[in-house]
Amino acid sequence: MSFKMTHEQELARKIALEFAEREIIPHRDKLRVEDEEFEEQLAVKEAKAGFHLAMIPRDEGGTGLGQVGRVVMEEELSAAYPRMVSSLHREFAYVFAKATGGVVKEKWMPLILKGEASAAPFINEPQGGSDLMNYTTTARRDGDDWIINGRKCFISDGHKVEFGMILLKTGDPKDPATRGARSMTAFIVEEDMPGYKVERVEKSMAGNLTATVSFTDVRVPGNYIVPPGVGRGISPVFLAVWDVGRMGISAMLLGCILGSCRSSIQFAKERVLYGKPIHDLQAIKHRIADMYIDLAASRALTYRAAWLRDQGMNSSQEQSIAKYYCTQAAIRASLHAINIHGGSGVMDEYMPQMYYRYAPCLIAGGGTDEIMKDTIAASAINGANPVMGANPAETSGFYIL
Ligand SMILES: Cc1cc2nc3c(=O)[nH]c(=O)nc-3n(C[C@H](O)[C@H](O)[C@H](O)COP(=O)(O)OP(=O)(O)OC[C@H]3O[C@@H](n4cnc5c(N)ncnc54)[C@H](O)[C@@H]3O)c2cc1C
Fold first, then answer.
1. What confidence tens digit (pLDDT) does each residue in 174-215 have?
2. What is the atom index within ligand 1 of the atom nearest the CA of 158?
3. 28-55 pLDDT, tens per residue?
4. CA–CA distance from 45 to each of 32, 48, 92 (Å)?
5. Are 366 and 121 in contact (CB under 8 A)?
């Protein structure tokens, strides 16, 4: 078993680190005060650097770096400053366009390759959350088209994305053939479709933005249904949420851990007490050791889940384990960093408080801790992922996001 990064993966980390040192770290103040113009410019620079091309194979115009290459780059970008890396929405755009194919792929691929298209999953609903079967957004057939009505909330950057993959109900609760999981269909929706409206934008405690988007009689052509088709929407949506969302979130959490480690080491070398740098104090050393243990374990879990996907293998259980572990580890590591920095740790101009505020913002996205544990346990008990395999989830209310 080889744990060695390939030359391309090492290079990917170096490129991301150099980008971060040039374009992010010197400008952290602008990110801290949420300077929108700067954030837009940075997103354009990230697109030009081609970070979003990692998941796209070379023969489709990407860099073909794969999940591992993508994770190490997003880890470095997030370590420089924890935030929703812009490549995530561009990766969603690629995965959605590819899964849908046909006219959707033709329309969006040229823009995706240039980094000019971004997308989000439109899954979560106010009255549903983890409980998918309680969702009320629907689509009804009208000739060759479908008419969508409903509302989705907490959509990451939902006010900015050009399109999304929406999961909604097309089934009849009275018909055993189209209820339960069979009632859910995935469509592509575009922000310029009449009836698509951004209703409100909410900000988390770390500054990331989510939107509530409503759909009023939004007409969508039949070829915007995501294969495998009507009543089969859960698999493509969740594959995308796992591959792009959970892996990307784990990478951003790795960034919080790595950034906490780096800032703590630097501070512990510079801060002198009792005539010596504080890293000579055993209690400080032990905090640093704890952080590095969490960094090593989180990387091992995340890189392995990413590597399995690069081999074309299912890694939904590994991805859930990685996301769950990285969330806990990032909260622990950033709290250690705050402690090591003393009073400075909670001050605006020091990074630890930023990592500490950002990590919990990633708990719910892509599925809460409890849902991660349920997914892990379901795989362990059934030997299969509950969404992908035949199991009781097909007919009962369940919660997997
Ligand atoms: C920053 C951020 C970004 C997001 N981005 C997106 C996005 O782009 N697209 C999108 O569709 N959604 C997005 N979400 C929504 C996210 O997926 C949901 O918040 C998440 O699925 C949980 O739903 P909820 O918030 O309604 O919590 P609820 O489902 O109401 O959960 C409340 C509590 O109950 C627990 N719980 C729920 N079910 C069970 C169970 N079966 N067993 C034990 N405990 C349970 C939960 O773990 C939690 O502790 C985002 C959320 C956040 C915070």
1. 888 888 889 999 999 999 999 999 999 999 999 999 999 999
2. 8
3. 999 999 999 999 999 999 999 999 999 9
4. 18, 5, 18
5. no
For the chain, list the domains and their CATH numbers: 7-113 (1.10.540.10), 119-232 (2.40.110.10), 236-394 (1.20.140.10)
Q: Which atom of ligand 1 is least distant from the CA of 167?
A: 11
SS (H, E, C) the chain: CCCCCCHHHHHHHHHHHHHHHHHHHHHHHHHHCCCHHHHHHHHHHHHHHCHHHCCCCHHHCCCCCHHHHHHHHHHHHHHHCCCCCHHHHHHHHHHHHHHHCHHHHHHHHHHHHCCCCCEEEECCCCCCCCCHHHCCCEEEEECCEEEEEEEEEEEECCCCCCEEEEEEECCCCCCHHHCHHHHEEEEEEECCCCCEEEEEEEECCCCCEEEEEEEEEEEEEHHHECCCCCCCCHHHHHHHHHHHHHHHHHHHHHHHHHHHHHHHHHHHHHCEECCEEHHHCHHHHHHHHHHHHHHHHHHHHHHHHHHHHHCCCCCHHHHHHHHHHHHHHHHHHHHHHHHHCHHHHHCCCCCHHHHHHHHHHCCCCCCCHHHHHHHHHHHHHHCCCCCCCCCHHHCCCCCCC
| Residue 151 CB neighbour total at 10 angstroms | 17
Ligand 1 centroid to 365 CA: how many Å?
7
pTM above 0.85, yes or no: yes
Counting Cα atoms < 13 Å in the Cβ hemisphere of 76 gives: 22
401 pocket-lining for ligand 1 (C-beta < 6 Å): yes
- Give the pair of three-digit tokens for residue 343: 């009073």
Ligand 1 centroid from CA 326, angstroms: 17
